[in-house]
Design brief:
With 180 residues, the chain is of the alpha+beta class. It is 39% helix and 22% strand. The longest helix has 54 residues.
Amino acid sequence: MMPANSKNSGFTLIELVVVIVILGILAATAAPKFMDLTKDAKAANLEAIAGAMRSGLQLIHSQAVIDGQNNDSGVIQFNGTDISLYNGYPSVHGSDSFVEINTQVKAWLDIDVVDRNTANNNRNAAIFFTDKSSANNQIYIFFTADYDQKSVNFKCHVLYENPESDNPEKPIVNIEASDC
């Protein structure tokens, strides 16, 4: 038995409900801010990849000029990989396998990336994966976590293309981050 002069200590049901409501309101206002941070972080990662890609492309082009491989088509060895060139920059052939595309991208960039088929079989294989659009001779770099959403219309990727034309220009590196 409890002594008659002792008081029960603890929270009432109303106090607990008020605390839970306050925590719910705080969570509801803070969660969207964290969601935006994830999108911003993914977009920043894509910006970093595109910047590294542009730098790597300049190094490849410099090597192509030194080796006399900067006109029309050619091949140079870069970071232990044969890189097919068009106009002194990596060419993109839709007929290249996913593994070949990934090997070349890994030679230009120092990122954790695997080919599309490896990412499909093991979503934890790397942070990023490379894909291609054979019809357009384009290379894409996606987040492996976004594998199920990936398509050319999914706007969370880096795109590289070096279109062959009668009037060649520098290759294009675009960032799409609106769906991240």
